Amino acid sequence: MILIHDLFQITTLYLTLRRHHLVITVVDYDPIWPSTFNELKSTIWPAISDIARAIEHVGSTSVPGLAAKPNIDITIVVKDISGLEQVIGRLATIGYRHGGDQGIPGREAFKRPENTPRHNLYAAVEGDLGLRNHLAIRDHLRRNSDSANTYGALKKQLAEKFTDIDDYVDGKTELLVGILAKEGISEEELQEIRDLNKKPSA
Questions:
Q1: Which of 12, 102, 116, 121 could bond to 110 as cystine, CB 3.0-4.6 Å?
Q2: Domain around 125
Q3: Residue-level pLDDT at 105
Q4: Where on the phi/psi map is residue 184: left (φ > 0), alpha (ψ -120 to 50), or beta?
């Protein structure tokens, strides 16, 4: 289970990568990413606006100038678990297929409709640890270009070095944990993140 930044964004593709050694693609920032998010939001938000608190552009594509895997990450924020249940039904009406929580309680994943821009869609309960971490990382990197540049360079290095997504994730964890510490995440929660992101034993 992954709780931080784009690590939090576990998709069907991600789960496939965990089982197979494939190329991990990290590209330079593309200025079109915010427009792509807004295009997707314009379709999603009307279907859930009365039951959701917000829809957030998250992950590395949400940080100007940051290198990223070229998938737009989107999280719908709801008040409570009952809101998640409602969102599942609403999204089905616009073509999103529910993919379950994928091992992360309080967050649901969805498979995007065909012929839409590459993106990962999730719904999470407001205040959930994983969501808090994700937003904290995003906001920190938006405020601190030096940190964003360091993180982007690290991701490119790891993508060139590894074909195993577990190694790639493990290589980013300490940098992200360091950022979260600056953002006030407790040591207990930070240790939980470290433990969750350790590469599984062979």
A1: 121
A2: 5-196
A3: 75
A4: left
Question: How many helices (H) and strands (E) are present in the chain, helices listed first?
Answer: 7, 5
pLDDT for position 5: 52
DSSP string, 10-59: --HHHHHHHHS--PPP-B---TTHHHHHHHHHHHHHHHHTTT-SEEEEES
Give the DSSP H/E element, type plus range, for residue 99. Answer: strand 97-100
pLDDT tens-digit series, residues 8-28 = 444 444 444 444 467 889 999
Is residue 202 one of the residues assigned to a domain? Answer: no
Q: Considering its fold, how many domains does the chain have in total?
A: 1
Task: Tell me the angle at which helices 81-92 and 33-48 cross, rounded to the nearest 10 degrees.
Answer: 100
**Cβ contacts of 7 within 8 Å, gap of 6 or more:** 169, 172, 173, 176, 197
On whether residue 58 sits in a domain, the answer given is yes
Q: Is residue 170 classed as helix, strand or coil in its secondary structure?
A: helix
Q: Extract the residue ranges of the chain whose pLDDT is less than 70.
A: 1-21, 199-202
Cα dihedral across residues 7, 11, 14, 20: positive or negative: positive
Domain harbouring 142, CATH code = 3.30.460.10
Phi-psi region of 160 (alpha: psi -120 to 50; beta: other; left: phi over 0): alpha
